[in-house]
Request: fold
Amino acid sequence: MRPWRELGIDLYLKYKTDVFFSTRVKIILFHIFSLAVTVVVTIGLLKYIQHITLTGVLEMFNTALSTGVKPVDPFIELNEDVESAQYFVYCSIVAISLFFGFITTHIALKPLHKLVITQKRFIASIAHELRTPLAILKTQNEVARLDVEENSPIQETLDQNVEEVDHLTEILNNLLLFNRIDNFESISFDSVDLETLIEVTISKLKMFADKKGVTLTFEKTPLPYVYGNATGLEQLFFNIIKNAINYTLRGGKVIIKSTAITEHEVTVCISDNGIGIPKNELPHIFEPFYRIDNAQKLSPGTGLGLAIVFEIIKLHSGKINVKSAVGTGTEFEISIPRHSQDMIKNRRLHEVGVIYDFSQKKEIKKT
Ligand code: ADP
Reply:
């Protein structure tokens, strides 16, 4: 008796503490329940068919006996009744299965959903906690650098420390941004002056481009306002232009220009003549933390820049096309809706998705 009791307590504790075990139990119980409902409903409906068949036949015989007329028409009528009752049974079984399937999926995905939220909170709090000590570390290194001899090995070490701290801070900032971005309700949309926004972004990256020996050109044409979130759009252009500079060798060029302005959207193209992206890597570049081996040599990135771009494009119901050839360069084409109705229209068109036109020949839709 005792082992059974202990087993019961163990299972109860497991149910209470292990979210995957409790989900499994819930799904099994729910399946038994749905099976019972289906059996009860099917038996009920079959009984109903049996009832209408029997009463129909009985009525037919009674009529035939009392009138002496051969029952041909009533048979056809009865057959029709039985057939429609059968259809009703099939439809009911399909509807019940769909309904229970939907609820089962909901039960199965609930812990996963909770887990993602907890994970995001966890990442956000760690990133927050780490930002302050990193800032202190950077200041201490910079202060220490003032007291050491120019071009000495200690100065070199301190400079490397600052670079590493900057890189870590960038990773943390990107993590925080990536975590926040899908909170759609907290992001406001308005008319955005795209031309000024691109100019501001370029001015922020000008020094970086100069340092890397890359020419940054904005082939300006008057751009209309778009409908979006200014901070998000600036981040989007910042990430793509920064990548273009990062992955272009000294003496290379990055060009930003508008390629199409339609009634509904504005398309901006950012092209570079940098190292390019291998064809087999293209479908993965928007995945979080995905970096290509040869990029590592040029820039100590985080692998989050394009994942953030992907989320911002999704929020704007926009489109992004990437074309690239190794050794020749890369071209990112971004389309942003001009009006709020266009956002809705685009969303319907692309189902809140992003179109990748990776190789001109192939088109992959991702939602
Ligand atoms: P990060 O630049 O921090 O590594 P991203 O998510 O911004 O991360 O980019 C993912 C990868 O895509 C990069 O590591 C790089 O290999 C590749 N990539 C992005 N933009 C370009 C570009 N303009 N030219 C070549 N490779 C690029």
Notes: The pocket of adenosine-5'-diphosphate is lined by residues 239, 243-244, 247, 272, 274-277, 285, 290-292, 295, 301-307, 330 (CB under 6 Å).
